[in-house]
Amino acid sequence: MSRPRVIRCAACAGRIKPHHPHIGVEDLETGVEFSYHVRLGCQIRCAEETDTRLEAGKVFTAHHYHSARCPDEAPGFGCSGGCFDTPMAVAN
Ligand SMILES: [Zn+2]
Ligand SMILES: [Zn+2]
Predict the structure, then answer these.
(1) Which stretches of the chain are assigned E, i.e. beta strand?
(2) Counting ligands in written order, which one lies closest to the CA of residue 46?
(3) What tens digit of pLDDT does each residue of 62-73 get?
């Protein structure tokens, strides 16, 4: 396996610790994955940027990475570890 890579948030350029929950948006064509913090500001950027990329005709899949302490494996919100308590999109 490769060495642990430094993950940076595509929204705020801050570092994401690998054992912290984060969101990955993977470009299925290139395999490039954009990572985002779970906090709201970064998630909003994530949604906006993904929309822009989708409009450019790209295809993405989103990954939800739980924190190392979280007992849940399944992706999504409301996990028992509370990783993704902040809703992905703000209803308005
Ligand atoms: Zn961020
Ligand atoms: Zn979790």
Answers:
(1) 7-8, 15-16, 22-27, 33-37, 60-65
(2) 1
(3) 888 888 888 887
Question: How much is the pTM?
Answer: 0.80
> How remote is the CA of residue 35 from the centroid of ligand 1, in Å?
8
The token duo for 6 is: 């430094």
Q: Indicate if the pLDDT at residue 92 is higher than 50.
A: no
Summarize the confidence of residues 22-50 as an average pLDDT. Answer: 93
CA angle 24, 27, 28 (to 5 degrees): 115
